[in-house]
Amino acid sequence: MSLHRLLVLYSFFCIGFPQLVAQTAPNNYVQFVNPMIGTKRMGHTFPGATVPFGSVQLSPDTNYEPYSKGNGYNPDTYKYCAGYQYEDSTIFGFSHTHFSGTGHSDLGDILVMPGTGALMLEPGVDTIPGSGYHSGFSHKNEIAQPAYYKVHLDDCNVTAELTATERVGFHRYTFPASDSAYILLDLMYNIYDHEDKNTWVFVRVLNDSTLTGYRQTQGWGRTRLVHFAIRFSKSFESYGHKKYDPKIYNGFYRKFNEEENFPEMAGRDIRAYFKFKTADKEQIMMKVGLSSVSPLGALNNLDHEIPHWNFDKIVQEGQAKWNKELGKIEVETITPEDKVTFYTALYHSLLTPILYEDVDGRYRGLDQEIHQSKGFTNYSIFSLWDTYRALHPFFNFIQPSRNNDMIYSMLAHQKQSVHGMLPIWSHYANENWCMIGYHAVSVIADAIVKETTNVDKQRALEACIATSNVPYFDGLGEYIQKGYVPEDKSSNSVSKTLEYAYNDWCISQIASRTNDLEAFEQYQQRANNYKAVYDPKSAYMRPKLSDGTFREAFDPLDTHGQGFIEGNALNYGLYVPHNIPEMISMMGGKKKFAEHLDYIFNVALDDKYIEKNEDITRDGIIGAYVHGNEPGHHIPYLYNYTDQYWKTQERVRMINRTMYSHKEDGLCGNDDAGQMSAWYLFSALGFYPVLPGSEEYTVGSPSIKSATIHLENGKTLYIKTKNQSAENVYVQKLTWNGGEIKSYKLFHRFLMGGGELVFEMGKRKKE
Fold first, then answer.
1. Which CATH class for the 33-323 domain?
2. What is the pLDDT of residue 69?
3. CA proximity to 74, closest of 189, 199, 217, 193
4. Least CB-packed of 4, 331, 507, 531 within 10 Å?
5. E strands, 435-590, where?
6. Measured between alpha carbons, how far is 707 from 414 in angstroms, rounded to an integer?
7. pLDDT digits (tens, 9 = 90+) for 544-560
8. What is the secondary structure of 401-459 as a DSSP string?
9. What is the pLDDT of residues 36-45, one digit of tens each?
10. Which of 648, 624, 749, 633 is closest to 680 using CA atoms?
């Protein structure tokens, strides 16, 4: 047995594992989810029609804000990254793809809107009723549940219902009696739209109820293809379309009247319509299949996943899928509201990454070629600067098989990349290069160390090493040469240096599992590069120039232009998760470091320090601690590495209470593809992975009363609390299977073996 495992065993005092009988999970967890929960500034997370990790997220879009207005950036577009704002009173349509509260955006594919009366092809202005095809609505006539959404559209008197499978959106529209009912297909609409975003649209009307097509866009994903197939439950009376792009050349298509009842539509910007005659309360249904491969692939997906017109059956099946995933954790909470907060966070954590392959396993790769997944399911949407911190570790805890598939998807991405790199921030067969670091290595290392992946370790190591040595990537060449990223060569240099150093430590952990001593030593040395940007005179991490001197202009409170991305030296300067004891020693020892943490939570951060950052706003700030953005998510747990560990318990419980709620504005910052919610889930259960890439969790203060966790390996983990209440935030005693744990550490291997973890809580700190 390795020394590492002996130390782990010693830490738990060789406590045994009694056989505990698993409880039968109730199956109505959907009732505890509020899909409307989001943020005022970022919109909400898919209110309704999606299944866990589904590639279709069919939901309403409540405004039509372009990326730019005039000659500049339009800040209002930021609110619509997810498409939906609860405070709005208009709906512009229902599109099939969305991001879950990310700080930048794309998608909004295949927008559908029913209507009656005079045909309107323009969206109009939200503040001017009747100016376009948008409609007013009221939350009183709106229902949002996992896998189901319903709303009454006041302007056209149509009730819209939505549900979905993994690859198909299913619509049911209840019309009034009308000789002029129609369904609009807006293929111009995009989230983060701009006039050049659509590259091409192509539609074929196959018969009086079926059409196929595709559109290509250039945005955050610069070469993004979405193929679709649409089938109506009723034959349309007539159809047509309008092209909004100028016709410089149209060839011999000038022979035809293409705008009416012509079965081909092609152009850059197209809106199409399909007209019906309806009786009162007549329902017209519509299935929309998506594919990255081809229109035929979309049609196959549609026919395979919904071969019938039983809308209610698809709702029931979708909610059964949610209940299966949500039911893996049964919690008892202090208040009923806490249960909604918990299960909504769990719902958020299961939205992305998304399934990204057809029912036959084919998918479009980064090289824009069609690939066949073999031995894994392909996934997309990897917001890795965010999600490596807690979401992927949470998957290793509760969704290890899916996370294994995600790692295979990352390795396929690396193989298809002309740069030879693992994904940085990727979606829909595109690398968008957003944010810093190469954090796929963290996800891979975490799974290898926790033994939740069957990936070939040597192959994984080679992919990670290749990624870490691309000299033209984001200051990486200078980092390799100098041991730090110079600020005069690459902005946000301190953040990059700190993140690269951590990434390199992750690579060393993979090397240790492959017995590659040379790589282990090389990356252990690179992992020490954080020391190069620490200035002992100011006691801060700060930007260093190419000549080896620290830049003179420096303000540790400012979040703009100080060498940090979406953060400042006060917060982001504490990012050395792989060597926290050495960082504390460098910064003056445990007492001084604890005082620094206190200062972070208590100092008043002036508006001038955050005014240039869209991702940092007041609703996510405590003192100068920014919980609404990811780089500081480990900070509340750093007290555990000082002699004042009870302050971790205070801070964590306070953050859970004030930064999350069951209400519509219950998130304090971007959910960032599930990271914000994963922090809450771990913290509510009582522990957190400060160091992904290790087996170690650090203990906080659980906010649940109890949890029964049905692990994928068939074991059951019970988390219980004694004397739990809103006031009893301090851990008095921690036991594992009846034996006391003296430290504030837990280890993944033991939790995965099943057993009983008991927190005894109290009002007074235990010193």
1. mainly beta
2. 87
3. 193
4. 4
5. 534-535, 540-541
6. 38
7. 999 999 999 999 999 89
8. HHHHHHHHHHHHHHHH-TT----SEEETTEE---SSS-THHHHHHHHHHTT---S-HHH
9. 888 655 555 5
10. 633
CA distances from 469 to 90, 419, 420, 526 (A): 49, 10, 10, 12
Angle between helices 440-449 and 493-513 (to 10 degrees): 30
Look at the chain and count its residues: 767
What are the distances in angstroms from CA 545 to CA 175, 354, 652? Answer: 66, 41, 37
Q: Is the pTM of this model over 0.85?
A: yes
CATH for 364-457 is 1.20.1050.60
| Residues paired with residue 275 on neighbouring β-strands, in sequence order | 182, 238
Pinpoint the residues of the chain covered by CATH 3.30.2080.10.
Answer: 1-32+329-356+591-767
Helix 400-416 and helix 440-449, axial crossing angle in degrees, nearest 10: 140
Q: What is the pLDDT of residue 36?
A: 86
Domain 1-32+329-356+591-767 fold: GH92 mannosidase fold (3.30.2080)
Q: Where in the chain is the domain with CATH 2.70.98.10?
A: 33-323
Structure tokens, 455: 């990936």
Evaluated on CA atoms 623, 650, 39, 139, the torsion sign reads negative
**Among candidate residues 438, 457, 461, the one with its CA nearest the CA of residue 508:** 461
Give residue-wise pLDDT tens across range 91-120.
999 999 999 888 789 999 999 999 999 999
Closest to 644 (Cα-Cα) out of 589, 693, 722: 589
| DSSP code string of 582-622 | HHHHHTT-HHHHHHHHHHHHHS---GGGTTT-TT--GGGEE
Query: Strands (DSSP E) along 83-133, which ranges?
Result: 90-91, 93-95, 111-116
Distance CA(406)–CA(410), nearest Å, equals: 6
Q: Which residues contact 252 (CB under 8 A, 6 or more apart)?
A: none
- The token pair at 186 is 């807006």
The first and second tokens of residue 645, run together, are 């560990």
Tokens 């087996």 found at = 695
